[in-house]
Amino acid sequence: MTPHVIDLPPVVGLPVVGTKATFPVRRVYCIGRNYAAHAIEMGHDPDREPPFFFQKNPDNLDPSGDFPYPPQSSDVHHEVEMLVALHSGGRDIPQGRALDHVYGYGVALDMTRRDLQGQMKKMGRPWEIGKAFERSAPVGPIHTVDSVGHPDTGAVQLKVNGELRQKGNLNQMIWKVAEMISYLSTYFELAAGDVILSGTPSGVGPVARGDRLEASVDGLGTLAVRVT
């Protein structure tokens, strides 16, 4: 084995319901504006257009239940999403076979430094500074396909301090899971360990230190997160 000049970084592993083994994360793809109502609230046309994706880093995923309020921002927003975890991949995957590559599903939050993202949009620059910061994606455990099937309908919601902020349904996604996988595979070679965050419904808004967030997707449990 060829030695490395520095220690290998740790592998990010997500908990899996029913086992002590973890799901190792390779890449994180996030689809933007995948619910019509959210597209409208962000000032965009909800008509179906080609999907677009941005990325977070594997070590942005955090199952700890704590979200440290990030630096350099005074406007951090919550976005509840269904997480899709792949056990295999490839190129040019047909839609009809796309779900064969899914290992399981979970609940995630795409926390966003909205003020910094807005600045980047105005300047025509990438969004990473607003999206891919440390611990920006709190996640719950993965539920295997064997246990939950392929969820395509059911409530997606988020409460802040017990108050309902976001509420949608998986059946409102503009681009379905199979379509996302197939589309991504025409631009990237997907592989085991890849994760897709499937978009958020309307109602996104700011969080403050001390807030308690409860994110849920029907059949996938509730992710409780404290903003610290």
UniProtKB/TrEMBL annotation:
Keywords: Hydrolase, Metal-binding, Pyruvate. It comes from the Bacteria. Residues 28-227 form the Fumarylacetoacetase-like C-terminal domain. GO terms for molecular function: acetylpyruvate hydrolase activity; metal ion binding. The keyword Hydrolase applies. SUPFAM superfamilies: FAH. The keyword Nucleotide-binding does not apply. Pfam families: FAA_hydrolase. This is Fumarylpyruvate hydrolase. The lineage of its organism: Bacteria, Pseudomonadati, Pseudomonadota, Alphaproteobacteria, Rhodobacterales.
